[in-house]
Amino acid sequence: MISKYVVSREKGKLETTILFPHIVFSGLFFKMMPLIFKLMKQVILKGWKSLAFESNEKCDGCGICKRICPVNNIYMKEDKPKWNDHCAGCMACLHWCPKQAIQPGSINLKIKQYHHPEVELSDMLKQSKKFN
C-alpha cells in the first residue's frame, strides 16, 4: 500500500497510533515482563555500563564485528572484540556475528539474530566502509 504512494508520488493520510496501549493490549507487554525485570535488576545492581556489549566463549576472533561497526567503536584485543564508549546501538555486531557470540552485558537476553534476507554480509561491510 505504501509503495503505491511512493511510486506514484501521491500524498496520503499519515497513519498514527498510540504505541503503549497497543503493546499492553496485544499481550506483548506481559510477555516482555521477565526480560524487563531482568534488565532492571542488572542495571540496579551493576549500573548501566553492565549492559555494554561483550563477546562470550563462542567468539573465534574473526573481527567481523569490528569491520561492520558503522561508528568504528570496536577494536580487537587478544583476538577478542572490545567496545569503546561511543556505541550507536545499531546492534550490527550482534546480528552479523557468525558465531552468535555477542550479547549486551553478561546476562543472556536471548536476542535472536536478524538481518534482511536480501542483504549479504558483503553489502553491510561495503556500507560500513563509507562511514569509517
Structural write-up:
The protein has 132 residues and is α+β, with helices and mostly antiparallel strands. The chain has 2 domains: 1-47, no CATH class; 52-132, Alpha-Beta Plaits. The protein is 42% helix and 11% strand. It has 6 helices and 4 strands, in the order H-H-H-E-H-E-E-H-E-H. It has helices at 2-8, 19-26, 28-46, 64-68, 92-96, 121-131, and strands spanning 53-55, 74-77, 80-83, 102-104. It has a two-stranded antiparallel sheet with strand order 1-4. Strands 2-3 form a two-stranded antiparallel ribbon. The two termini are 36 Å apart.
What is the succession of H and E elements?
Answer: HHHEHEEHEH
CATH architect. name of the largest domain: 2-Layer Sandwich
Number of individual domains? 2
Shape annotation? flat
How large is the share of residues in beta strands?
5-15%
CATH topology of the largest domain: Alpha-Beta Plaits
Strand order in the sheet with the most strands:
1-4
Radius of gyration: 19 Å
How many helices in DSSP terms? Answer: 6
**Could you give a short account of the major beta sheet?**
2 strands, antiparallel
Structural class: alpha+beta
Q: Helix content range of the residues, please?
A: 40-55%
Which whole number gives the mean pLDDT?
84
Instruction: Please identify the top-level CATH class of the largest domain.
Output: Alpha Beta
The separation of the N and C termini measures 36 Å
